[in-house]
Structure formats: structure tokens, C-alpha cells
Predict the structure of Laccase 11.
Amino acid sequence: MQSFSFPFLLICMISLAISVSGEDPYRFFDWNITYGDIYPLGVRQQGILINGQFPGPNIFSVTNDNLIINVHNSLPEPFLISWNGVQQRKNSWEDGVCGTTCPIPPGRNFTYKLQVKDQIGSFFYFPSLEFHKAAGGFGGLKVVSRPRIPVPFPTPAGDYTILIGDWYKSNHTSLKSRLDRGKMLPTPDAILVNGRGPNGASFTMDQGKTYRLRISNVGLQNSLNIRIQGHLMKLVEVEGTHTQQNSYSSLDVHVGQSYSVLVTADQPSQDYYIVVSTRFGRKYILTTAILRYSNSNRAASGPLPGGPTEVIWSLNQARSIRTNLTASGPRPNPQGSYHYGLVQTVRTIRLANSAGQINGKQRYAVNSVSFVPTDTPLKLLDFFKVGGFRIGSIQDYPTGSKEYLDTSVMAADFRDFVEIVFENNEGIMQSWHMDGYSFFVVGMDGKQWSPASRKGYNLRDAVSRCTVQVYPRSWTAVYVALDNVGLWNIRSEFWARRYLGQQFYMRVYSPVESIRDEYPIPINARLCGKVADRHTRPL
Ligand SMILES: *[C@@H]1O[C@H](CO)[C@@H](O)[C@H](O)[C@H]1NC(C)=O
Ligand SMILES: *[C@@H]1O[C@H](CO)[C@@H](O)[C@H](O)[C@H]1NC(C)=O
Ligand SMILES: *[C@@H]1O[C@H](CO)[C@@H](O)[C@H](O)[C@H]1NC(C)=O
Ligand SMILES: *[C@@H]1O[C@H](CO)[C@@H](O)[C@H](O)[C@H]1NC(C)=O
């Protein structure tokens, strides 16, 4: 009988894991993260630049591409980037949040190895530590279909990434120290479009042609409405799902969300205003960018198109966003061939957000637990079996108890099909994101959720996405197939709320512990804190 040593077997398994994705093309990126001067509102600010750019470069990729991104941290403090919407199948190691990945120390680098496996669509990346997101370091990330997979609309004449978001004149350190002192954030000073202030961003179109705009809200808290003077936007894709192609005169984009629309330059030749304004906020803030016809010699003028004001308008728009069941997604078969509405859910998780004071400071919580990070990523504590956190430290339902601090990790079984209900009993908008997954948004409505609410679910053509809004004193229900082993961050996209505890991790676990279900720890994984002296491979 032949016997193999453990390292030998491990090497075989690693080669197997690598060869699985070895068929697919590689794209290499070398990024240098620095501080630099930016002037989005005309006054000097300290921004986080990637290769000298603010916002960072947009990543172009094709379904199944491997993205090898070497991030050099030239900031004087630790840094990490995370990938909003990139599912990183079997690979939460690369997620780039503090629960999964050690920070890149100043002057050092880390090479992310991501694969946009079985994905299409519009996403973005952002810096995940501290309050870095308030200073830049974000950019667009698009995944286009492979050449032979049909896309349900003619190839557009151009493809523009439009990153919209609220913005502060205060720098990220002063915003963060405000939160650390237990205070809330002030209202933002402005809205930026691709890192620029009023009329700083422009998009050129040839008259008569149709363009794709990929719009992401990369801001810190405000839901935004976008509209274009004289033009309709035909919605075609939401975070990786091809939608029924409805036309909208304006679109609500909540924090962390991404939408693709088609715009046809079918108006008289001149320039037009693109208007982006806040929704549901205490203060109304508005900015403009320019849609430029290439043959135009007239500047944009005239009254700006007004935006919606009612919450119900937004709820109705959200409900009108449906999956085109016959269109292809990342694979040639129609998106509707997975009948999620026929799958029995085995578990209901109800997540209620709340705000409260803990030790005299403002905090935010999920089912009463206000998340506190550990100095060592939970994923590494788990892998090296070091302990230091408790699986099951957050309940499946609101307990109604007073908010308290803990490192909340929820246990979940690989392949379970679960219902998650986000319950918002507060009077402000919420936006929730789940790393590693897309979920079907089966329902949303006002007041309290109850089992009877299921009667109104859309079990046919709900859109599958990774970030969903919850209206004030309302609920949103999603279905998710837990088919991605790993440790995944579930968070508020309101950055101050996330920073002050409105997040937790879900540990999707398979007792088989096979590399078929989860990749081994990356050879180049940085180790830190309690596991700093360990090794990613046996010596
Ligand atoms: C990053 O940029 C800084 C400032 O320009 C430079 O000093 C440093 O050498 C660069 N690092 C890398 C790895 O390119
Ligand atoms: C850091 O970058 C170098 C090349 O500049 C690369 O060889 C090395 O693997 C990177 N380190 C990590 C941890 O990814
Ligand atoms: C759905 O996709 C199909 C297939 O590409 C397309 O023919 C049809 O027009 C689309 N329907 C809607 C409502 O967008
Ligand atoms: C950030 O803002 C604070 C308060 O205005 C200021 O003291 C600090 O110097 C600023 N930091 C940088 C790096 O500009």
C-alpha cells in the first residue's frame, strides 16, 4: 500500500484547485495606494489615490476571468480593499474586510487573487478599513459576458461608469474621530459624480446612438436619485441580473447599489444636464454632470428635471424591477431556469437594525448586537482554531433587548436555502449588503413583517442582487441559497452605521471541509495578530 505524506497530498490538492480555474484568462493589475491632493469641490483635500487616480481605475473583466491585483500600500497606515458584488466563490480569504483578511501594513503589498466566476454585471470596489471610503480609493468593476453568450440588447456604442456618492469636505480621520467620540456624522457637503463636483463630469454621445451607463452609489449614507434632462433611462441590469427593460425618467440608487441603463441620444443636438440629488435626507443636496452630444455647440440650459419626493414612488419603482426570465445571465441558459420560488426555505433569519447608546456613545446594532472587530481576522482565528469569538453570538430574530457589544458571528449550513427578512423599525432608510452572495428580493412593504407577508412575495421573477434597501418602518425579504462556503460580511452600507456596529459575519460551513467547497488558505495570505507566527502551509 502506498502512503502519501500530508504536505504531498496538500500540494496535489492545491495544484488541483489552481488547475480548476487555470483554463480561464488572467488579468494583472499593479496598484499603488497613496495620499494625494484632490480638489473635487475646488478646495484642496487629501484623497486616497490608486496609481495617482481619484476615483481609482475601473476594472474591466469577462465572466470567469481571474483578476490578480497586487496592492502596494504606500499610506502611513494599514489598508485593505474589498469587492462589492464579486462573489469570490469558495474564497472568502480574498474578501478584503477585517473579518477575513489581515490589513496590508504600511509600505507592504498584498496580491488579491479573485475570480469573477459565473458572474456578469456592474459592481465596484472600495477601501474597507477605518473610514477610508470617505477619502476615495473606490472604482468601478464590470464583468462583461463571454463572446458567445447572448446579451438581451444590441451592443451599445459606448459604456460609461458613473460613480455617484455623497461627499464631505472633512477628511476621513476627522469623520472617524467624530464617530469614535460617540457623535453622529453631519449632513454631507456635496454629491460627487466620478470624483468631481458640479458639471465636472461629462459623458459624450453621438446623436442617434445608444450608450450603457453603469451607475453605482459609492457614497457613505445618502440614497440618491439620478435623472437626465430630456432622456429616458432603460434599465437593463441590476448587480448581475438582466432585468425586464422598463424605461424610467429617474432612478433611485441606494448606498452600495449598482444599476445599468441604456440611454439613447435621441434629442436635438445640444448638451443636457444629468442631475443627481439626495433622497429621504434631512437636507436636499443636488449636483449636475453633463451629457454632451458630440455634434453639440449649445451648452446645457433650462430648468433641471425635478426628482420624486414620495417614499411610495421609490417603493413602487423597486417593485417594478424584475428579472427577464428568458434572457441569459453569465451562462447561455435563461436566468429563469432556476426556479427559486419552488425551493423550500429551511430557515428564517429576521434581522432588525437599531440605534442606541452603549457606554455613553452612539452605536448601531443588528438583533441588539453591536459588532466589534477582533485584532485578528475571524477567518484566520477559525482556520488556525485559535478561538477568540463565538459562533452563534447573534440570534436569528430580534430579541428586543438593549444593544450590547460583541463579535457577532452567525452559523449557517452549506447548501441551506434560507429566507432573510430585514426589519427596519427606525424612521430612516437602510441599505443592506451581503458579501459572497446574490439574493432574490422577494418582497418589501411597510409596517411589520409577519408570516402572512409571504402571501405577497414575488416567487417568479424577483431580481437577484447583492445590496437591497429597506424603507423607513418597513421590511424587505430575500431568499438566498447558501452555496458558497466561507465567512461572509453582512453589513449596513451606511458607513457610519457599519463602522459603529451594524454588521456581522455569517459562517457558511460544511462539515466535509473539502477543497471542492472551499479553496485552501492562499499561500501569500498575510498573517497577523494572534496568528502572526503561523504558516499558510505546513513547513
Ligand atoms: C508608490 O508611489 C509613491 C509616491 O509616488 C512612490 O514613492 C513609491 O515608490 C510607489 N510605490 C510603488 C510600489 O510603486
Ligand atoms: C508583493 O509584490 C511582489 C512583486 O512586487 C510580489 O512578488 C509578492 O508576491 C507580493 N506580495 C504579496 C504578499 O502578495
Ligand atoms: C427579455 O430578453 C429577451 C431575450 O434576449 C428579449 O428578447 C426580450 O425583449 C426581453 N424582455 C424584456 C421585457 O426586456
Ligand atoms: C484632517 O482634518 C483635521 C481637522 O480639520 C486636521 O486637523 C488634520 O490635519 C487633517 N488631516 C489631514 C491629513 O489633512
Observations:
- Residues 1-21 have pLDDT under 50 and may be disordered.
